[in-house]
Amino acid sequence: MHFGRKLIHLDSVDSTNNYVANLVKEQGLSSGTVIMADHQFAGKGQRDAEWQSLAGMNLTLSIYLDDVNLSVNRQFRITQLISLGIHEFLKQQGIESEIKWPNDVYVNGVKIGGILIENHISGKEIKSSIIGIGLNVNQKDFGAINATSMSLESGKQYILNELYFSFIHVMNGVWEKYWADINLDKRYLNSLYRINVRSSYTDKNGEFEGVITGVSSEGKLRMERGAETIEYTLKEISFR
Ligand code: BTN
User: Fold this and answer.
1) 210 ligand 1 Cβ < 6 A
2) 45: nearest Cα among 127, 192, 121, 147
3) Each residue of 77-87: pLDDT tens digit?
4) Is the pLDDT of residue 1 over 80?
5) How far is CA 88 from CA 109, 147, 182, in A?
6) Does domain 198-239 have CATH number 2.30.30?
7) CATH superfamily name and code, 7-190
8) Test site for ligand 1: of 103, 116, 160, most ligand atoms within 8 A of the Cβ
9) Could you state, in order of their start, the residue ranges of all structural domains in the chain?
10) What pLDDT does 47 receive?
């Protein structure tokens, strides 16, 4: 596995994730290829949300992997590695971040980046994966959206093309180092937003107070609520 051996850099596209999916269908794509865009006019986020990013300001890219060979019930491992990669990259850039389960990266409680992974599954195996990453870099104004960027956190202005190469370098290092690491779960939990902190959440029964104690191997959020421990999927819980 090696990310970024090939890079396709686009001026403008609907969504880099969609672009990868179409390219794979039409002509095939080598594993590890990165599609990066200066501007996405229909960027996709989690839960059918839109991913908004000002043109030329941020990293918006997708990585295609076709040699994943991971059983479906272990798919969360990809999310763990990618979020740890972003966390590690920010750390190397002098920015302390936390991973907000399952797909976001936060700095001081505010979102700086997000991940949208679309897997192609056959039988019980993940055959290929489109890993979409949006990381706010130079954008300073997010309108009504509560978000932050590397620039807002550090006061620096970044050269996106240079940053891209450092980013891919760190992602490759993290993937290599942690893919088979038995301590991956521990590393992930060490950087998890609100771990072991009593906070407010909402589920189908309304607002409640609970404590995140971990994440199951299938990627469900483990929440201690009084004497009970409940496991939640993404759609079953929201943070307050
Ligand atoms: C989220 O936090 O909701 C996930 C955001 C993922 C955004 C990235 S930007 C590059 C890639 N292409 C998309 O359309 N979405 C992902």
Assistant:
1) no
2) 147
3) 999 999 999 99
4) no
5) 17, 19, 18
6) yes
7) Bira Bifunctional Protein; Domain 2 (3.30.930.10)
8) 116
9) 7-190, 198-239
10) 86
